[in-house]
From TrEMBL:
Alphabetical list of CDD domains matching this protein: M48C_Oma1_like
Protein name: Zn-dependent protease with chaperone function
Ranges where the Peptidase M48 domain occurs: 60-246
Keyword Kinase attributed: no
Organism: Lysobacter capsici AZ78
Any one of the GO CC terms: membrane
Binding note for cofactor: Binds 1 zinc ion per subunit.
Keywords noted in UniProt: Hydrolase, Metal-binding, Metalloprotease, Protease, Signal, Zinc
Entry cofactors: Zn(2+)
Entry superkingdom: Bacteria
Amino acid sequence: MKRILLGVSIALIATACATTISPTGRTQHVGAVSQAQLDQMGAQAFADAKSKQKLSTDARKNAYVRCVVSSITQQLPPNWQANWDVAVFVDESPNAFALPGGKVGVNTGIFTVAKNQDQLAAVIAHEIGHVVSRHHDERITRQMGAQTGLNIVGSLLGARYGEGAASATGQLGGAALQTAFLLPGSRTQESEADVVGQRLMAQAGYDPRQAVNLWQNMIAASSSRPPQWLSTHPDPQSRIQELNARAGALIPVYEQARAAGRTPKCG
C-alpha cells in the first residue's frame, strides 16, 4: 500500500509539472520552479562556492578556462548565450561544474587529467550540456515530487499507525527514493550530457576524439581509489566505448567547424 500511494503521489505531482523533450529525445518532467528561480539558485550556489573555496589568481589558467568556455557557449542557442561567469578554484580534485544562470567552475586539479584544450573542452562542454539539457530543473522537479509524495504517505501512515510509523517512513523512504528513484536518473543525465557535450565541443572546433582520451586519463588518475562521482556516473569503460563510437560520427561536424574558422587557440 505504501508503494502504491507513493507511486500515485509522485505520478500526480509529475503530471502537474511541464513535460518537455530533452536534446536526445527523452521525455522530461520539469517546471517545479521557474527559470528565473533556477538562475537565482545557480547564482547563489556559485557565490557560496566562491566565498568558501580559494580562488586561483593564476592569470594564465583563468584566461585559458574563460577562452574554452567562451568558444563553447558561442555554439549554444541564442537564449543560452548570455555572459557566462567563470571561476577557477584551487582544489586538487579533478572536477568542474556548470550551473543555471551561466556559471562555470573549474578546479585546478582538472589540469592533471585534461592535458590539452580539447580535453578541457570535453569537460566544460559536458558540464554545460547539463545546463542546456535542463537537468537541474528536472532533478529539482523529481526531488520535490518524491519528497511531497513521501510526506503524503507519512501523513497517511501516521494517521493510522501513529507518529512512529510516519517518522520511519520519512527516514527509510528518503533513502530508498535516493537510491531507487533519483540516482538512476542522475546516471541517465550523465550519459545525456556526454552526448550533448561531445557535439558541442565538435561544433566549437575541438576534436571530439579527445573526450575519449580525457576519460582514459580520468580512469588512470583514479585507479587507486574510485572517486565519489563514479557512483552516479555511467560505467567508465562503457562510457569510453560510447564516446569513441560517437566521435567518428562527429568528425564531419568538427571538420566543418574548422573550415568555418572555428579554430580555438586557448592553450
